[in-house]
Amino acid sequence: MKYFCKYLPIKGEIKEGDKILNPYNEIQTCISLEKGIGINEICWIKVKETTTLQQILNSQKVKFYLCSRDIQVGDIVSIPSMIGSFQIHEEGKEPIENSVITLKYAIKANAYKVIGEISKDAIWVTEGDEFEEENLQLVIWDKSETYADEFSLNEVNRFLDHTKEIRIRCSNCKTFH
Q1: Residue 53: which residues within 8 A CB-CB, separation 6 or more?
Q2: Which residues pair with 130 in a beta bridge?
Q3: In this predicted structure, what is the pLDDT of residue 27?
Q4: How far is CA 140 from CA 15, 27, 36, 115, in A?
Q5: What does the alpha-carbon distance between residue 121 and residue 158 come to, in Å, rounded to a whole number?
Q6: Is residue 91 within 8 Å of residue 105, measured between CB atoms?
Q7: How far apart (Å, rounded) are the C-alpha atoms in residues 172 and 5?
Q8: Residue 168 and residue 176: Cα distance in Å, rounded?
Q9: pTM of the entire predicted model
């Protein structure tokens, strides 16, 4: 089964070093923030030393995630053309709320589930890259985030409520980063 990498919007204030999605649908890194002067005091983001400032209002904070299209009843999924997440329920069963969809509809709508955040050390990985399971490693952190255990990706459902990171095997050095 193939897994793919995708930047997804997250909530939170944009800070220096964060990845952002600009109004032109490009992923950039925020290198500095500057407050405007005047009545509106608009915040601006500088993404490169050579570019002009962008309004923070038109940019969205994003993180890099590993995703899968291998979806099943009970999974929480996202759909590219829709906002929010949805739970997949059984065919023929009446949905309890608006955030519930059938597996048939989810597959037709190209739904995917988010597995976990990709390690910041996997710097060669780009959006849309695909990986087989043997090239992925699940890292689960303890509550204090000082110690981590490594697991195969097929154990991800055991750790839904834990802080997790996905490491990817580098094709050059064969090490998980």
Answers
A1: 34, 44, 45, 46
A2: 4
A3: 86
A4: 25, 27, 41, 12
A5: 24
A6: no
A7: 19
A8: 5
A9: 0.78
